[in-house]
Amino acid sequence: MHQFARIGSQVIVGGLSGARGDIIPFGLASGQHAMLEGLNVIGMKRRKFTRERLATVRAFYKKLFHGPGIFAERLAAVQGLASEDPAIADILTFIANGKHRPLCLPAATGPD
Known about the structure:
Radius of gyration: 13 Å
Largest sheet: 3 strands, mixed
Oligomer: single chain
Helix content: 25-40%
Strand content: 5-15%
Shape: globular
Number of strands: 3
Distance between the termini: 32 Å
Strand order of the largest sheet: 1-2-3
């Protein structure tokens, strides 16, 4: 872990991964320089997330990290989704409270 980096609740980080940025709650990060690979779905299922709840959080994750436009625009667009699920509210609060380190983001992908 890099100094001042934060790890949210219910996160899983792959072995031998170096996290240089903040990892969102319920995140799954791995790699030599850890990148966000998705959500910790197995951990969420173990915590009794229903299928509907998982679908809601996954849809939010896709809009935030894989939607069109730049990250700041996508973040502003999903703010209203905080009331849909406590996990979404936790993620948005975690992002808003970040001060020292950048977010651990998914690897950049080319156009589909």
